[in-house]
Structures are given as structure tokens and as C-alpha cells.
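Trying the structure run again after the queue cleared.
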Amino acid sequence: MEEVLISRQQIKDKIFELAKQIKLDYQDKKLFLVGILDGSYILMADLSRMLFEQGFSNFEINFIGVSSYANSRESSKNPKITKDLNLDILDKHVLLVEDIVDTGWSLDFVQRLLNERKPASLKTLVLLSKPDRREVKVKLDYLGFEIENKWVEGYGLDTAGLGRGNPDVIQKK
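Done. C-alpha cells:
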């Protein structure tokens, strides 16, 4: 059983809004968008297109892979890098893009790792946040939606590797 929690139109509208703010915040800077794999790939594609459509093209894209769930619904609380960046972010303006933050373990790990590499700035965009699940405090600069503590998939989010292609965010029951 499943229910649409956030529709593709709501997501599109929110990304438009976020892209508008990012364009203002980085108007005179080169931006490095860093997506956290695997879940952020759709968000990264849509965000980068929306930025470009709004006239902001001064950005590069890269990805970092992190695993903390494997095929489970519970975080291992011990994230591991599965793919590192293939660019140096020293003195660069970095926007970390994540699909969802719940416990905060993975995002905290990546934020600390990237901060050690001394970017000029590091901000974070998260499409979905589950504040009731938070075990580690993390800074979110751009937020799409806060949701309840329910298992969701779609729009890049998966259940054991499946369901990422659904254009809506659905609640699995």
C-alpha cells in the first residue's frame, strides 16, 4: 500500500523556489554543486536545470557517494564513502545536495569531511527532513519539505534499491 505524500508538481514548485534563492545567494560566485549519491541524482538534475533556466549557469556538478543504510531501514550510524569527489574544493563555494536527512549521521559525516577540505563556503540543500528522527544535529541552509517519521520512496529515494524512479514522493505502508 502506498500514498502520494508530495506530488511531482509540489516538488517542481519547491525546486523552482530554492533555485531562485540560490541564484540570488551565489549571483557573483562560481558554485560547486555536490550531490550525495545515490538518492540525490534526480534532485541534482532538476536543480541544475532550474538554475540554468533562471539564468544561473556559473556552476559545476560533482558527486560523493555515502552508504549508511545498505539494504536496511535503519542507519548503521557509521557512514562510509563509496565514491569520493574528483575535484578539489579548496577555497570554492560548495552547495551539498541531499535527498533526505533523518538521523543526520550521513549528512554530518559528509559536512565534516568537506569542511576539512577548506571550501570558501559550505551550505546544504535537503529536499526532505525528518526532524523527529534526528540523532545528530546538522545545519540545513535550504530545505524543501519537513515530513513525519514515515518510510518514503520515489524521486531518488529507494527501498532496498527499488522505487527511485517514481516522480512523486510516496509513503510506504
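Residues 68 and 96 are 17 Å apart (CA to CA). Worth checking whether this holds up in the mutant runs.
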